[in-house]
C-alpha cells in the first residue's frame, strides 16, 4: 500500500520536529499497541491462545502434540502458519506471506530444548504449533509480533499427557543383545499432564524503527514507511536478546543518507528489550485469569 | 502500555439506539409468511425478535424467507426446493413481488453524488484509476479535474504527457461520484475547490457500513481540525483548511486554481493542531472498533467527552475508551 507524499511528510514531521514526538494514534514512542488475549480456548488442542494486537491484527495459535519419530536431538517443534481467507487467498506453500511467517515462527521455536520430549529410542513427541491469522486489516502490517506472543502463551498453557515407560531390563545371560524397550504407556488423566520445559528460551518479537533521531517501538505501517530502518528484535523473558532481523531499510523517501550507527542500533535494541520484558510480564497475568466464554470478534 | 485481558463487551445496545440507527424502509405485509423458522434453525436472531423491535425482518444465511411461489427472488437470496432462502445476513426488502436481502456488511456501493476519498492506483492515458474501496476502481478522467490557470483553460497535449504533475500513484484525493460506466465502475470528478488532493493530515479507514449517509460529510471540528468522513469508509483528518469553508463562485475558481492545488507540500501544522488530529483519530477509530455509527453528533460527543483526558496517552487504553463511549452515547 503506497502512501502519498503529504501523508509521509506529515507523519515524519510529527515524529521528528516535536518534543515529545507525536504519534498519529497518541501513543508514546516506547508504547506498544493495546493488546488483549485469551488462553485455553480450543478444547481439542493441548494448548491454545488468541491474541488481538491493536485493532488490526488477530491471530489464533493451537498446539497439538502427537507421537512421532524421534530425531537425534529428541522431539520436534513444527510451525505452520495459515492466513485466513478473509485476509488473503494466499495459502499455498509457495505464497510469500504464510511461508515467511512460518519460517519466522520456526526460527523462534528452534531455540527450545527438545531432548526431554523423547521417551523411547525411536519415539518422541512432535509438537505442532499451528497458527492462523484471523485478521490483518492493513497490508504489510507486523504480524510476527502477535504470532510470537500467542505462541508463547499457548506453549505456556500446553499440557501433554504423561508418558511412562515400563522398566524392562531383561538381559539374556550370555547374550550381548540388549534391546531397549519400545513400549510406553500414556497416562490419560488430565490432572497428571505435564507442562513443556525450557520455555524461558521462548522469545517474543518486538519491532522497532529508527526515524532520524527518534526511536519508535511497534511502528504502524505509515511510521515504518518513514524510517531509516525497521528491525524485529526477539526478546527473552529475562530481557536478553535472542536475535534481530532487518525488516526494512528505508530507501526512497527516508533516505537522508543517515546510516544506522552502531550506537543507534544498540539503543534501538535496548528499547525493544525493555518493551519486550514489560510485555512478557504483563502477559503472565493472563495465564492465571479465570475468565471463560467465547467472545465475538469486533473489528 | 500493555493490557492483556479477556476482551469484554462493555457497551450494550439498548432498544432506542437500534431504532435510531436503522434507516431501512421495509414494507412487509404480515410476519407469518416471511419469517418462518426452520426446524434446524438455531440462530439467536429469532430470540432478538421480541426484544429488538427496531430490527424487524432480519435474516441470517440459510434462513427461509418464504415458500410462497408468487414471489421472485432478488439480490442476497437463493432458491432451493420451492422456497426462497437468504444467502447473506441482512434485512429483507420487498418491492411488490421482488424479495431481496440488503446485507449489513458489504463492500461500498457507489452512488451518484457521493463524496468519496480515494487513492490513485494507476496512471493511464488521459485518466487515472482510483481505489475507492468498492469492487472496482473508479476512473478519474483528465477532463474531470481542475487544470491550473482557470476553469476555461483548455486541455493541452502537454497535459496528457505530464499527468503526474497533477496526480501520481499513491496520492489521496477527495472527489464526487459523477456517473456510472456500463461495467459498473464509476467516474469521479474534482471540479470544485472543495475537492482535490488531500494534505496536512492523516488517513483512517473505518467499515463503510458504519458511515451514515447524510447531507454533509465535511465537518469542521473544534481544535482547528477538519474531518472528511466519506461514505466508503475512508476518512481524512487534517488541519482546518479554508477551502472547505464556503462554496466557491466561478470567479474565485479562476483565481484560486493555481499550481498550488496540486502541490505535495504540507502547510505548517503546529503541535497543538497535530495533537488534536491525533485525538480525533483516536475518537473515530474507537467508535468504529466498537461498531458504533459514525454521525457528526456521535463523533462530536465522543470528542468532547475525551477532552476530560488531557493526556493523549491515557486515551490509548481500551478501558478508558469504553467509558468515554458509554458516556458519549447517552
TrEMBL record, chain A:
<protein>
    <recommendedName>
        <fullName>Ribosomal RNA-processing protein 42</fullName>
    </recommendedName>
</protein>
<keyword id="KW-0271">Exosome</keyword>
<feature type="domain" description="Exoribonuclease phosphorolytic">
    <location>
        <begin position="31"/>
        <end position="161"/>
    </location>
</feature>
<dbReference type="GO" id="GO:0016075">
    <property type="term" value="P:rRNA catabolic process"/>
</dbReference>
<dbReference type="GO" id="GO:0035925">
    <property type="term" value="F:mRNA 3'-UTR AU-rich region binding"/>
</dbReference>
<dbReference type="GO" id="GO:0000176">
    <property type="term" value="C:nuclear exosome (RNase complex)"/>
</dbReference>
<dbReference type="GO" id="GO:0071028">
    <property type="term" value="P:nuclear mRNA surveillance"/>
</dbReference>
<dbReference type="GO" id="GO:0034476">
    <property type="term" value="P:U5 snRNA 3'-end processing"/>
</dbReference>
<dbReference type="Pfam" id="PF01138">
    <property type="entry name" value="RNase_PH"/>
</dbReference>
<dbReference type="GO" id="GO:0000177">
    <property type="term" value="C:cytoplasmic exosome (RNase complex)"/>
</dbReference>
<dbReference type="InterPro" id="IPR001247">
    <property type="entry name" value="ExoRNase_PH_dom1"/>
</dbReference>
<dbReference type="InterPro" id="IPR036345">
    <property type="entry name" value="ExoRNase_PH_dom2_sf"/>
</dbReference>
<dbReference type="InterPro" id="IPR020568">
    <property type="entry name" value="Ribosomal_Su5_D2-typ_SF"/>
</dbReference>
<dbReference type="GO" id="GO:0071035">
    <property type="term" value="P:nuclear polyadenylation-dependent rRNA catabolic process"/>
</dbReference>
<dbReference type="GO" id="GO:0034475">
    <property type="term" value="P:U4 snRNA 3'-end processing"/>
</dbReference>
<dbReference type="InterPro" id="IPR027408">
    <property type="entry name" value="PNPase/RNase_PH_dom_sf"/>
</dbReference>
<dbReference type="GO" id="GO:0005730">
    <property type="term" value="C:nucleolus"/>
</dbReference>
<comment type="similarity">
    <text>Belongs to the RNase PH family.</text>
</comment>
<dbReference type="GO" id="GO:0000467">
    <property type="term" value="P:exonucleolytic trimming to generate mature 3'-end of 5.8S rRNA from tricistronic rRNA transcript (SSU-rRNA, 5.8S rRNA, LSU-rRNA)"/>
</dbReference>
<dbReference type="InterPro" id="IPR050590">
    <property type="entry name" value="Exosome_comp_Rrp42_subfam"/>
</dbReference>
<keyword id="KW-0963">Cytoplasm</keyword>
<dbReference type="GO" id="GO:0071038">
    <property type="term" value="P:TRAMP-dependent tRNA surveillance pathway"/>
</dbReference>
UniProtKB/TrEMBL annotation, chain B:
<dbReference type="GO" id="GO:0071038">
    <property type="term" value="P:TRAMP-dependent tRNA surveillance pathway"/>
</dbReference>
<keyword id="KW-0539">Nucleus</keyword>
<dbReference type="Pfam" id="PF14382">
    <property type="entry name" value="ECR1_N"/>
</dbReference>
<feature type="domain" description="S1 motif">
    <location>
        <begin position="111"/>
        <end position="191"/>
    </location>
</feature>
<protein>
    <submittedName>
        <fullName>Exosome subunit Rrp4</fullName>
    </submittedName>
</protein>
<dbReference type="Pfam" id="PF15985">
    <property type="entry name" value="KH_6"/>
</dbReference>
<dbReference type="InterPro" id="IPR003029">
    <property type="entry name" value="S1_domain"/>
</dbReference>
<dbReference type="Pfam" id="PF21266">
    <property type="entry name" value="S1_RRP4"/>
</dbReference>
<dbReference type="InterPro" id="IPR026699">
    <property type="entry name" value="Exosome_RNA_bind1/RRP40/RRP4"/>
</dbReference>
<feature type="region of interest" description="Disordered">
    <location>
        <begin position="17"/>
        <end position="42"/>
    </location>
</feature>
<dbReference type="GO" id="GO:0005730">
    <property type="term" value="C:nucleolus"/>
</dbReference>
<dbReference type="GO" id="GO:0000785">
    <property type="term" value="C:chromatin"/>
</dbReference>
<dbReference type="GO" id="GO:0071035">
    <property type="term" value="P:nuclear polyadenylation-dependent rRNA catabolic process"/>
</dbReference>
<keyword id="KW-0271">Exosome</keyword>
<keyword id="KW-0694">RNA-binding</keyword>
<feature type="compositionally biased region" description="Acidic residues">
    <location>
        <begin position="30"/>
        <end position="42"/>
    </location>
</feature>
<dbReference type="GO" id="GO:0003723">
    <property type="term" value="F:RNA binding"/>
</dbReference>
<dbReference type="InterPro" id="IPR025721">
    <property type="entry name" value="Exosome_cplx_N_dom"/>
</dbReference>
<keyword id="KW-0698">rRNA processing</keyword>
<comment type="similarity">
    <text>Belongs to the RRP4 family.</text>
</comment>
<dbReference type="GO" id="GO:0071034">
    <property type="term" value="P:CUT catabolic process"/>
</dbReference>
<dbReference type="InterPro" id="IPR036612">
    <property type="entry name" value="KH_dom_type_1_sf"/>
</dbReference>
Amino acid at each position: 500500500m503506497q502512501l502519498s507524499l503529504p501523508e509521509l511528510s506529515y507523519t515524519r514531521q510529527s515524529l521528528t520536529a516535536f518534543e515529545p514526538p507525536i504519534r498519529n494514534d497518541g501513543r508514546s514512542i516506547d508504547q506498544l499497541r493495546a493488546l488483549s488475549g485469551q488462553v485455553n480456548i480450543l478444547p481439542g488442542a493441548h494448548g491454545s491462545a488468541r491474541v488481538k494486537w491493536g485493532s488490526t491484527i488477530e491471530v489464533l495459535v493451537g498446539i497439538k502434540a502427537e507421537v512421532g519419530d524421534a530425531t537425534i536431538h529428541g522431539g520436534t517443534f513444527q510451525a505452520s502458519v495459515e492466513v485466513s481467507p478473509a485476509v488473503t487467498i494466499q495459502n499455498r506453500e509457495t505464497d510469500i506471506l504464510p511461508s515467511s511467517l512460518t519460517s519466522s515462527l520456526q526460527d523462534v521455536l528452534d531455540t527450545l530444548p527438545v531432548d526431554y520430549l523423547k521417551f523411547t529410542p525411536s519415539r518422541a513427541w512432535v509438537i505442532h504449533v499451528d497458527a492462523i491469522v484471523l485478521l490483518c486489516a492493513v497490508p504489510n502490517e507486523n504480524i510476527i509480533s502477535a504470532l510470537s506472543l500467542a505462541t508463547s502463551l499457548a506453549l505456556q498453557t500446553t499440557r501433554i499427557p504423561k508418558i511412562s515407560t515400563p522398566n524392562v531390563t531383561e538381559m539374556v545371560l550370555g547374550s550381548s543383545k540388549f534391546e531397549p524397550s519400545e513400549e510406553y504407556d500414556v497416562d490419560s488423566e488430565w490432572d497428571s499432564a505435564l507442562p513443556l520445559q525450557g520455555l524461558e528460551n521462548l522469545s517474543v518479537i518486538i519491532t522497532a524503527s529508527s526515524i532520524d533521531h527518534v526511536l519508535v517501538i511497534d511502528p504502524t505501517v505509515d511510521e515504518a514507511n518513514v524510517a531509516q530502518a525497521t528491525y524485529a528484535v526477539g526478546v527473552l523473558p529475562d530481557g536478553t536478546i535472542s536475535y534481530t532481523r532487518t525488516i526494512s531499510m528505508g530507501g526512497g523517501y527516508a533516505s537522508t543518507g543517515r546510516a544506522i550507527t552502531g550506537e543507534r542500533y544498540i539503543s534501538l535494541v535496548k528499547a525493544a528489550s525493555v518493551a519486550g520484558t514489560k510485555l512478557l510480564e504483563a502477559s503472565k497475568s493472563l495465564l492465571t485469569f479465570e475468565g471463560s466464554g467465547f467472545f465475538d470478534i469486533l473489528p | 502500555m500493555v493490557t492483556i485481558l479477556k476482551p469484554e463487551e462493555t457497551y450494550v445496545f439498548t432498544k432506542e439506539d437500534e431504532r435510531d440507527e436503522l434507516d431501512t424502509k421495509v414494507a412487509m405485509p404480515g410476519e407469518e409468511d416471511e419469517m418462518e423458522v426452520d426446524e434446524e434453525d438455531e440462530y439467536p436472531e429469532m430470540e432478538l425478535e421480541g426484544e429488538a423491535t427496531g430490527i424487524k425482518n432480519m435474516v441470517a444465511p440459510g434462513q427461509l424467507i418464504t415458500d410462497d411461489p408468487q414471489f421472485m427472488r432478488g439480490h442476497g437470496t437463493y432458491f432451493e426446493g420451492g422456497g426462497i432462502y437468504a444467502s447473506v445476513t441482512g434485512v429483507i426488502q420487498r418491492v411488490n413481488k421482488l424479495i431481496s436481502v440488503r446485507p449489513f456488511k458489504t463492500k461500498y456501493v457507489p452512488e451518484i453524488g457521493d463524496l468519496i476519498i480515494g487513492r490513485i492506483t494507476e496512471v493511464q492515458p488521459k485518466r487515472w484509476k482510483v481505489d475507492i474501496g468498492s469492487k472496482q476502481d473508479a476512473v478519474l478522467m483528465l477532463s474531470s479535474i481542475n487544470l491550473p490557470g482557470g476553469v476555461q483553460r483548455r486541455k493541452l497535449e502537454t497535459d496528457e504527457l505530464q499527468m503526474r504533475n497533477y496526480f501520481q500513484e499513491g496520492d489521496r484525493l477527495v472527489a464526487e461520484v459523477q456517473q456510472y460506466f456500463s461495467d459498473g465502475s464509476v467516474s469521479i470528478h474534482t471540479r470544485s475547490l472543495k475537492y482535490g488532493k488531500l494534505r496536512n493530515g492523516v488517513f483512517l479507514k473505518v467499515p463503510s457500513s458504519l458511515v451514515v449517509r447524510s447531507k454533509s460529510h465535511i465537518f469542521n471540528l473544534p481544535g482547528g481540525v477538519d474531518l472528511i468522513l466519506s461514505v466508503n469508509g475512508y476518512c481524512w483528518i487534517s488541519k482546518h483548511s479554508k477551502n472547505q469553508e464556503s462554496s466557491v463562485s466561478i470567479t474565485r475558481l479562476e483565481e484560486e486554481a493555481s499550481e498550488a492545488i496540486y502541490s505535495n507540500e504540507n502547510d505548517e501544522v503546529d503541535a497543538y493542531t497535530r495533537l488534536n488530529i491525533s485525538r480525533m483519530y483516536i475518537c473515530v477509530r474507537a467508535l468504529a472498533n466498537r461498531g458504533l455509527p459514525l454521525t457528526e453528533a456521535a463523533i462530536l460527543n465522543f470528542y468532547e467527552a475525551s477532552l476530560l483526558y488531557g493526556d493523549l496517552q491515557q486515551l490509548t487504553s481500551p478501558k478508558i475508551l469504553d467509558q468515554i463511549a458509554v458516556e458519549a452515547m447517552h
